[in-house]
């Protein structure tokens, strides 16, 4: 009996994980199910279960590490063959070893997105296309991809999730299951061989079950009625495309075969929906239109005559009684009526504290493309990859250097020189490298991002409690920046100065507290704020080379405190904006002006700064999405 590795628990010894086990069984039975994703928190036995799948099948598990390179994964030039023959030849990669086996990727959500897209394409199509330098080749890759991920680290895009046929969620264990896990783990650590023998019978029964289901699968049929149910379920969850429909049919047929039946039943479809639809659910779909009210079947009965009399006007009382109610009633009314506050107790706009208003899902306001709301609800991780200029970061690819280089890509250099060794005769060295063969490394790292919020906290934003709305919008942007690992700073201007409330930090707790305690009131020293932020961000950008820096100016654009005495504050600000160019820093202007009349000062300010311009309500992704849908719907 083939068995899994001794350092791996048997498949049947894993406690719980019923959905994950069913997903792996379906993938082992059905060759049309090529990708399985196991999602769950840390320590939920996702990896243990995935590697244990080798014990119930004849296939091996081929591990794909996260630090694998493109050439190691997909294939590249066979240097030895090229040096011998002078012709470029293919050296297949790790995917060639996965042919006919199970390809396993742990923490797939941390894998490079471009590389993951290539792996999924190769697995789903069953072929690997290699285009690398002089090498151009294609080879087979008939494999099943089993991947695991912890969504708390970062999530995959909706498109990537859709390309996984099945997705099982690992739930937390209860107290009884934890006790069983501890007992089995102790037994396994004491004597692994004895533990494997203990579950040998169960493993053999599982192998026979999977093998029998593989033979039954070609005979399984599904009715048109159940196919219609599958399509209806996919429409209800808002699944894009038809991958979900196809996966549900294949999964339902596999479940029927595993249960020893040649016909799909309704319970198979229900179980398949659990494995195929949750990760494809579209939370942004519009709610269904309300159903019109049904008309009453019968008209209401006429009220009897005595009720009609009761509904007539009450009999008139004595006029004196109507004009002069009893004194006791007067006294009660006076006690219930709240007293009007004196004028001196009314709030003063010179110093007001507003609570934080409604938060919302923010659009990608830093993107240079058209504004579109993000499809995923929790997209974590830093914003983008950037080429490193200081020799640090991940070695991503090679290139021909422009001049002298100190970071030589030796692998790429040898590959470039290998085909020419037969004509470069030398008795002293085994490999002759010339200047044109030299390649340098291109390194990439996650690009940092610093956002300095420059907030107008003057009295004009206290009118109609606009500051509560502004705080809610800023907190929404702060939270969005936090999950993308940005540094966040806060500078506020009011009265006659601009103060740094919070230097750039990665702590959202400090940001929230400073924002909550930010007072509002006084005049608007916008000119002073521009001078202060220019000085600060100029020095900051010089000390953080390669980091993307943004200043998000939240204001209505109106100023009333000039730098030069006697000058018009608004004209001064507009003139300063034309020269406000900080190297390495981009500007974003958020117009906090609301209501009527609305002034265009903030828009003009953004135009002269060359900044991206938003109105406060434009940052709400849900509201923006609703507006787009309303605009395109006939």
Automatic annotation (TrEMBL):
Residues spanning the membrane: none
UniProt-annotated stretches for the region Disordered: 279-346
SMART domains with a match to the protein in the record: AAA, VWA
Biased composition (Basic and acidic residues): 312-325
Molecular function, one GO term: ATP binding
InterPro entries for this protein: AAA+_ATPase, ATPase_dyneun-rel_AAA, ChlI/MoxR_AAA_lid, Mg-chelatase_DI-like, P-loop_NTPase, VWF_A, vWFA_dom_sf
All copies of domain VWFA, residue ranges: 450-632
Bias kind Pro residues: ranges: 285-294
Pfam family, one: AAA_lid_2
Gene3D superfamilies in the record: Magnesium chelatase subunit I, C-Terminal domain (1.10.8.80), P-loop containing nucleotide triphosphate hydrolases (3.40.50.300), von Willebrand factor, type A domain (3.40.50.410)
Biased composition range(s): Acidic residues: 295-311, 326-337
Superkingdom in the source lineage: Archaea
Protein name as annotated: ChlI component of cobalt chelatase involved in B12 biosynthesis / ChlD component of cobalt chelatase involved in B12 biosynthesis
Species of provenance: Methanomethylophilus alvi (strain Mx1201)
Phylogenetic lineage: Archaea, Methanobacteriati, Thermoplasmatota, Thermoplasmata, Methanomassiliicoccales
């Amino acid at each position: 009996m083939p068995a899994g590795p001794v350092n791996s628990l048997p498949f049947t010894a894993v406690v719980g994980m019923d959905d994950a086990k069913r997903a792996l069984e379906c993938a082992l039975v059905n060759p049309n199910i090529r990708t399985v994703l196991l999602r769950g928190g840390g320590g939920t036995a996702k990896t243990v279960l995935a590697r244990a799948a080798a014990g119930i099948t004849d296939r091996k598990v081929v591990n794909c590490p996260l630090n694998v390179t493109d050439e190691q994964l997909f294939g590249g030039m066979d240097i030895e063959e090229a040096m011998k023959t002078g012709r470029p030849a293919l050296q297949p990669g790790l995917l060639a070893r996965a042919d006919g086996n199970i390809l396993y990727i742990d923490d797939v959500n941390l894998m490079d997105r471009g590389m993951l897209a290539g792996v999924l394409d190769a697995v789903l199509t069953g072929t690997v296309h290699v285009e690398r330098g002089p090498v151009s080749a294609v080879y087979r890759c008939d494999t099943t991809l089993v991947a695991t991920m912890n969504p708390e680290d970062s999530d995959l895009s909706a498109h990537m999730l859709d390309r996984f046929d099945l997705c099982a969620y690992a739930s937390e264990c209860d107290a009884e299951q934890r006790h069983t896990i501890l007992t089995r783990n102790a037994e396994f650590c004491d004597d692994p061989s004895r533990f494997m023998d203990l579950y040998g019978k169960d493993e053999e029964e599982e192998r026979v079950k999977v093998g029998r289901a593989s033979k039954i699968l070609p005979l399984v049929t599904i009715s048109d009625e159940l196919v219609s149910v599958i399509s209806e379920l996919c429409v209800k969850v808002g699944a894009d495309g038809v991958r979900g429909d196809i996966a549900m049919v294949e999964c339902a047929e596999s479940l029927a075969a595993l249960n020893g039946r040649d016909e799909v039943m309704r319970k198979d479809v229900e179980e398949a929906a659990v494995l195929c639809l949750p990760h494809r659910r579209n939370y942004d779909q519009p709610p269904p239109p309300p159903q019109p009210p049904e008309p009453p079947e019968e008209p209401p009965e006429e009220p009897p005559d005595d009720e009609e009399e009761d509904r007539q006007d009450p009999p008139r009382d004595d006029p004196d009684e109507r004009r002069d109610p009893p004194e006791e009633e007067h006294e009660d009314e006076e006690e219930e009526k709240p007293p009007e506050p004196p004028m001196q107790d009314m709030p003063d706009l010179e110093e007001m504290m507003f609570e934080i208003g409604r938060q919302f899902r923010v659009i990608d306001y830093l993107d240079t493309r058209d504004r579109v709301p993000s499809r995923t609800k929790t997209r974590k991780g830093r914003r983008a990859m950037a080429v490193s200029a200081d020799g640090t970061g991940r070695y991503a690819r090679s290139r021909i250097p422009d001049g002298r280089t100190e970071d030589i890509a030796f692998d790429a250099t040898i590959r470039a020189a290998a085909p020419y060794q037969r004509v470069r005769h030398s008795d002293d060295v085994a490999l002759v490298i010339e200047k044109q063969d030299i390649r340098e490394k291109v390194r990439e790292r996650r690009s940092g991002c610093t956002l300095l919020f420059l907030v107008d906290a003057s009295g004009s934003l206290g009118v109609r409690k606009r500051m509560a709305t502004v705080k809610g919008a800023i907190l929404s942007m702060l939270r969005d920046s936090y999950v993308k690992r940005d540094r966040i700073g806060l500078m506020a201007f009011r009265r006659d100065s601009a103060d740094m409330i919070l230097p750039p930090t990665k702590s959202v707790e400090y940001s929230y507290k400073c924002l909550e305690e930010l007072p509002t009131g006084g005049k608007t020293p916008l000119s002073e704020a521009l001078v202060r932020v220019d000085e600060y961000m100029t020095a900051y950008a010089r000390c953080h080379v390669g980091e993307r820096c943004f200043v998000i100016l939240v204001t209505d654009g109106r100023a009333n405190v000039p730098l030069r005495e006697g000058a018009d504050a608004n004209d001064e600000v507009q003139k300063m904006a034309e020269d406000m160019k900080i190297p390495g820093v981009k500007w974003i202007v958020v117009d906090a002006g609301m209501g009527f009349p609305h002034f265009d000062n903030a828009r003009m300010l953004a135009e002269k700064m060359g900044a991206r311009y938003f109105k406060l309500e434009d940052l709400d992704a849900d509201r923006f999405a609703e507006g787009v849908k309303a605009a395109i719907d006939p």
